[in-house]
Each structure stands twice: as structure tokens, then as C-alpha cells.
Amino acid sequence: MFFQSWSGLLRVLVVGTLAYVALVLLLRLSGKRTLAKLNAFDLIVTVALGSTLATVLLNNSVALAEGVLAFALLAGLQFVVAWLSVRSERFDALVKSEPSLLLHRGRFLDATLRAQRVTRDEVLAALRASGVADPARALAVVLETDGTLSVIPREAGGAEEAEGAPGSLAGLLPGAPARD
Prior knowledge:
Protein name: DUF421 domain-containing protein
Domain YetF C-terminal: 87-156
Number of strands: 4
Strand content: 5-15%
Structural class: alpha+beta
Shape: elongated
Radius of gyration: 23 Å
Transmembrane segments: 6-27, 39-58, 64-86
Largest sheet: 4 strands, antiparallel
Oligomer: single chain
Strand order of the largest sheet: 2-1-3-4
Helix content: 40-55%
Domain YetF-like N-terminal transmembrane: 17-83
Order of helices and strands: HHHHEEHHEE
Distance between the termini: 66 Å
Keywords: Cell membrane, Membrane, Transmembrane, Transmembrane helix
Number of helices: 6
């Protein structure tokens, strides 16, 4: 169906505008962290906010006040999770994953690749995207907690080879090899 009624279009314009303004104001009040992509919970909040906005816009049975309350609830829950994560290492470990080392000093870590369900081709694509054509020219590739792949290139002159030197992975990642 292409058209139902003028009142339906008017509702979308009015409720859509008001819901959008309410969401923008709520996001400004709740801070940058609400839409950060730092972990799975942050992603859930971002997707849920978008889904809620779409529902408020297109579902006549959902009132604007209900949608605004849903926005506030989602932002509030995200705030509580972030607040607890900062204050409790146990809670942080419960809700967040650790970064995973996928490639170290040009060598693929196949067990970690399998465990994280990442292919060598995906790591090679991340290397190319960062300007490193040869895996041997990378100190590391890390699967971050937000699902992105970070490439740490080798320093010119081999400074990364010394344990604890700038560019060394020792102490940066749990379980990172300190030296070969």
C-alpha cells in the first residue's frame, strides 16, 4: 500500500520530530559514552535506541511518552552498566571481553584466530587497510573489545624487540608474548 491517510503522514511528521528532539536531548544529557562502541553493551544500546525510534515513528499503538521513557530507560541502563564497570573490576570482567592478539611479530596465532572466529584473510585485509602489506612488517594485530582489528606496525630500527620498549606488547595485552 502506498498511502493510507493524511493523518498518518502528519503523525509521522509530528511524532518523528518530537521523538528525534527528545532523543538528541537525552543523548546530550547522558554523555558521549551512550553511543560509544566500546563493548557489546554499548552496541546493544545504540541498536535498541534506533529500533525504539523506528517503533515510535511507525507504530500508532506506541505513544510518544512511552517512546521517550524507553529512550531514558535504555540510556539509564547503559549509564548504570558503565558506572559499575568503572568502579568494579569484577563487574567489568563480567560485561566486557578482553582484546585478543591474533598476529604477533608477523606470525598468525591460529588457536586465537579459531577461538575468536577470525580468518587469516580478515587479518590480512586489516593489515592492508592500515598500509601494512606484509604481515612480517606488523608487530601485532589485535581484535579489540568492540570487534575492530587494530594493527600495530613494527617500528623502524627494531625498537619493539626490547621488552617494555615503546611498541612492545608486554603489559598491553593479557597473555601477550613478551619476547620470542
